[in-house]
Fold Regulatory protein of adaptative response.
Amino acid sequence: MTRQKARGRQEQTHFMHVDELGGLEVLQASYLRQTFSRHSHEGYCIGVIDDGAQRFYCTGGEHVAPHGSIILVNADEIHTGSSAADNGWAYQAMYPNPELLARLSRDLKSCAGGAPYFPQAVVHDVGLAGQLRLAFGMLQSNENRLLKETMLFSALTWLMMRYSKTRVTPATQSRAQSQVALVKALLDEYPEVDVSLLELAERVSLSPYYLLRQFQRVTGLPPHAYQIQARLRKARGLLKQGHGVLESALACGFHDQSHFHRHFRKSIGVTPGDYVNSLR
């Protein structure tokens, strides 16, 4: 856990992995000055605001989540985060992967047998927020696996029953979407490579300007920002495998440890060192 005192609020972060639940990531944090840059997670972000208020961009618009509200960010959805109150905000969040929610939603009509889609970025539901808080508390306890799963899965199932929808996707991709998908795949596979926009454009037979416009339209990020996210995903994988912070930073294309540290905290909310400590 890290702490930083700031204008009456004590900044704290506690990041943990719940091993018996497949390494489910959970963050408990209190922030004053923290700002999250545009980023995404491979899993969902499901959180409860315990104090203050958070402002964030998500789902094509700006949102404010006040005390007691629930934050819902879909997997791979671009979002940001900052304080919406003078005294910052405190919240708890979990990041379940789509496979877990797809298994839980198998019998729910709202999800049509697949991973759920949450159209609302902020919901106000006192009862469900309380149920999620109980689940968070259970995840941080030494209770047995069956009890943890019961509390967590009940809360998540209730959440999906009330607020998830079936996401309608086009049957076919446009040519531009297919080309963007190829560029994304390249950046995901080789995030450490110092590739130019011109080289990426030539790979898919587009002009650099057109690729830039289409890539941002499809993904919500320009290619260089997406590359940073791909590097962070790879770095987290290396850290989980036991590689050192500096080694992981350099292997993923970051200039140095400071460069890595800055981007990691602005996307994950904790430092690489804190993340490593949560794995122990």
Remarks:
- The first strand starts at residue 2 and ends at 6.
- The first helix runs from residue 98 to 104.
- The chain has ten helices and ten strands.
- The mean pLDDT is 90.
